[in-house]
Design goal:
CATH topology of chain B: Lipocalin
CATH architecture of chain B: Beta Barrel
Mean pLDDT of chain A: 84
Radius of gyration of chain A: 29 Å
Number of strands of chain B: 11
Low-confidence stretches of chain A: none
Strand order of the largest sheet of chain B: 1-3-4-5-6-7-8-11
Low-confidence stretches of chain B: none
Largest sheet of chain A: none
Number of helices of chain B: 2
Strand content of chain B: over 45%
Distance between the termini of chain A: 67 Å
Oligomer: heterodimer
Mean pLDDT of chain B: 86
Radius of gyration of chain B: 19 Å
CATH class of chain B: Mainly Beta
Chain lengths: ~180, ~170
């Protein structure tokens, strides 16, 4: 009899007890635990600052790259195209540095548009190294009266691919922030 | 006397009802400038204890929210300090008849980002749909911005709740 009495008492108490988070299967460490897959506040602030600046430098690079493309036709008449190219490269590598050095939490798997944004870097980063060098060689060959090699002749084609891939990469983040 | 106590407890136990969330989902839409981003969590957990009145608790582990873009998710978790405030909860009481009503209005004490605030909640389909409008500023959230435009202060949140009676 005492057992039945205790059992009903227990059921009754349970029915009236205030619901707690552990009743929902949420463990205490999930509420206030010290381990976290996110960054500590200082690193988080650094990441936020670097990515905001990456965004701004990326847009500035896109602007400079556009101007460089438009001045390509008159590259032999003035140095504007060359100076714009140098400025684009400097801005591009500043943008890249800000993204690459931004702290990222462990275990985060890239998904969505960021995956494409990062993937396109494998196209435009090598081209950003190659295209200015080909531009320099093109101008030097013209000045020295030397015949262009086949790769140097394709400076503008490589520049077009660089511009297209960079524009797409920029658009992915501007349109889907 | 013993039988009187026993009778009281037995009666009380028989009238108590418990509901647990079989499946729960929370959705909200982030609006910045002309952009809209859907955000969803399928990690909603909840329980209702009913006697004369019903008492409920809903909890959402913050890290279960996703926009299907890992970079944006990280930015969101940073903005709402998900490492510090890991769970958002909604709790309160409501009359038992609400569980059988097609529509109803109740109040919820929302604990989000370490700030508690009471909100009116609209219930539909016998408590299987719930909605409320969260005030981000009231919870001390520094609203993210896109090109200088801050996201909307009021965030409508929709819940889809599949309750199952367990006793």
């Amino acid at each position: 009899m005492k057992f039945i009495f205790s059992l009903f008492l227990l059921i009754s108490i349970n029915a009236h007890a205030q619901i707690q988070l552990n009743d929902l299967g949420i463990k205490p460490e999930q509420i206030t635990g010290t381990s976290s897959s996110l960054l500590n506040p200082a690193k988080s602030k650094e990441r936020s600052w670097k990515l905001k600046n990456h965004e701004m430098w990326g847009l500035a690079t896109f602007g400079l790259m556009t101007a460089t493309m438009f001045t390509g036709g008159g590259a032999m008449d003035s140095n504007t195209h060359m100076y714009l190219g140098v400025a684009t490269a400097a801005s591009y590598f500043t943008t890249a540095y800000l993204a690459l050095s931004a702290p990222k939490p462990m275990g985060v798997v890239d998904k969505g548009r960021i995956k494409w944004h990062k993937g396109l870097a494998w196209v435009h980063l090598p081209l950003m190294l190659l295209v200015p060098y080909l531009g320099y060689k093109y101008k030097k060959d013209e000045e020295d009266g030397v015949k262009h090699s086949s790769i140097v002749k394709n400076h503008s084609a490589f520049a077009g691919v660089l511009y297209g891939s960079f524009a797409l990469s920029t658009a992915l983040m501007v349109i889907e922030f | 006397m013993k039988y009187l106590w026993l009778g009281l407890i037995l009666t009380s136990s028989l009238f108590a009802q418990t509901y647990e969330l079989k499946k729960g989902e929370a959705n909200f839409e982030i609006k910045v400038m002309l952009k809209k981003v859907d955000t969803k969590s399928t990690g909603v957990k909840g329980k209702i204890n009913c006697n004369k009145t019903c008492e409920y608790l809903l909890a959402i582990p913050i890290m279960t929210f996703t926009t299907e873009d890992s970079n944006r998710d990280l930015n969101m978790f940073t903005a709402i300090e998900a490492d510090k405030f890991k769970v958002a909860t909604a709790s309160g009481t409501f009359p038992k008849k609400i569980m059988a009503a097609a529509e109803g209005k109740i109040e919820a004490l929302i604990d989000f980002h370490g700030v508690k605030k009471i909100y009116p909640v609209t219930l539909k389909n016998k408590g299987s749909k719930a909605s409320l409008k969260l005030d981000l500023d009231a919870h001390g959230i520094v609203r993210p911005s896109l090109f200088g435009f801050k996201m909307d202060r009021i965030l409508p949140v929709e819940f889809s709740l599949d309750w199952q009676q367990t006793n």
